[in-house]
């Protein structure tokens, strides 16, 4: 089995997403001021969106600026793949400072899926970049109504590795707890941080979503992998007959395999899922015990695309079962079942 494309040491890429007005830019500005985020490259759509003028130290060119702490910010060029490839080339040639991670800030109405697919479908990027995680900001004041009205916000939440609940200081007293319960129904595996005015510990946020490329991923990969259940919502006062209509579309399902798996069987199964159900397979991630492999393999995919398996440094405990989590949009759980036994 060839694991060369999942090279250890690849630069982790973090996607910062969230609905309009949910506090992405405020969070990003606060993060970039902290030492833990030194040597970070930030990819945005327009410089004006993040308001960096007062922090500008040096303009490298019309598309790149240098920030305090060795950080760098650039705008998306023709497409994201070209932007990342160009950043890597310029880093190698010494045209921009070295960077240890990349943060991509998406627009408020963007579906995170296509952005994640960029990291999977461009083979030349797989050698140099790896998905670090998805951070989704959720406005504690307005998120309930946004989740009801806009399916994009539910997709952003469903794909999150870490949910950053913002504006908790402005929300009614019971709002954060009610919203947290809804988050758990839609995405039970996401870690959650509560912040106000963008005040979040950057080191803590990075620790919540360690990159598979970092070598520190086993505990994060396994945390909660076998606690998934059908999505839904426990309704309370104020929930009308059409409230939360989007939530039920999204389902988190988990599978466990107690025996070592044959890699060819896994490839055929996952390939079939991608071919027949890729449009509704929002995300897959897991840890596999593959026959003939000494170490566990981390796997993840987005819709039609699956990342090459990444060998993990170690098993975190004595449990050698394979575990996978699927986040789907309107896909029956039975469709995920493999043709081979899960026993």
From TrEMBL:
GO molecular function, one term: nucleotide binding
SUPFAM superfamilies: Hypothetical protein YjiA, C-terminal domain, P-loop containing nucleoside triphosphate hydrolases
Any Gene Ontology CC annotation: cytoplasm
Highest taxon above the source species: Bacteria
Catalysed reactions, semicolon-separated: GTP + H2O = GDP + phosphate + H(+)
UniProtKB keywords: Chaperone, Hydrolase, Nucleotide-binding
SMART domains named among the record's database cross-references: CobW_C
CobW C-terminal domain mapped to chain residues: 250-336
Protein family membership: Belongs to the SIMIBI class G3E GTPase family. ZNG1 subfamily.
Function: Zinc chaperone that directly transfers zinc cofactor to target proteins, thereby activating them. Zinc is transferred from the CXCC motif in the GTPase domain to the zinc binding site in target proteins in a process requiring GTP hydrolysis.
Protein name: Putative GTP-binding protein YjiA
Gene that this polypeptide is encoded by: yjiA_4
């Amino acid at each position: 089995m060839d694991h060369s494309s999942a090279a250890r040491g690849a630069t982790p890429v973090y996607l910062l997403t969230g609905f309009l007005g949910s506090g992405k830019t405020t969070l990003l500005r606060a993060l970039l001021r902290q030492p833990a985020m030194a040597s970070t490259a930030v990819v945005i759509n327009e410089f004006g969106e993040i308001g960096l003028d007062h922090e500008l130290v040096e303009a490298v060119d019309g598309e790149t600026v240098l920030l305090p702490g060795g950080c760098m910010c650039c705008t998306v060029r023709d497409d994201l793949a070209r932007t990342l490839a160009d950043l890597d080339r310029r880093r190698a040639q010494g045209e921009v400072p070295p960077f240890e991670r990349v943060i991509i800030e998406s627009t408020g109405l963007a579906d995170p899926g296509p952005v994640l697919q960029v990291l999977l479908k461009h083979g030349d990027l797989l050698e140099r970049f790896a998905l670090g995680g998805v951070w989704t900001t959720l406005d504690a004041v307005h998120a309930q109504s946004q989740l009801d009205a806009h399916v994009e916000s539910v997709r952003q939440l469903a794909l999150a590795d870490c949910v950053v609940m913002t504006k908790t200081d402005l929300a009614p007293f019971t709002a954060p707890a009610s919203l947290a319960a809804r988050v758990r129904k839609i995405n039970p595996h996401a870690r959650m941080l509560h912040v106000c005015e963008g005040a979040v510990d950057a080191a803590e946020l990075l620790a919540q979503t360690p990159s598979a490329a970092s070598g520190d991923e086993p505990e994060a990969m396994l945390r909660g992998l076998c606690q998934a259940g059908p999505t839904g919502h426990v309704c309370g006062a104020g929930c009308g007959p059409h409230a939360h209509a989007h939530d039920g579309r999204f389902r988190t399902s988990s599978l466990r395999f107690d025996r070592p798996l044959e890699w060819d069987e896994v490839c055929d199964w996952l390939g079939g899922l991608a071919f027949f159900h890729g449009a509704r397979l929002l995300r897959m991630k897991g840890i596999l015990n593959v026959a003939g492999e000494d170490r566990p393999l981390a796997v993840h995919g987005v819709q039609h695309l699956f990342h090459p398996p990444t060998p993990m440094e170690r098993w975190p405990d004595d449990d050698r079962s394979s575990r996978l989590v699927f986040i789907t949009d309107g896909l029956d759980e039975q469709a995920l079942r493999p043709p081979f036994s899960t026993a």
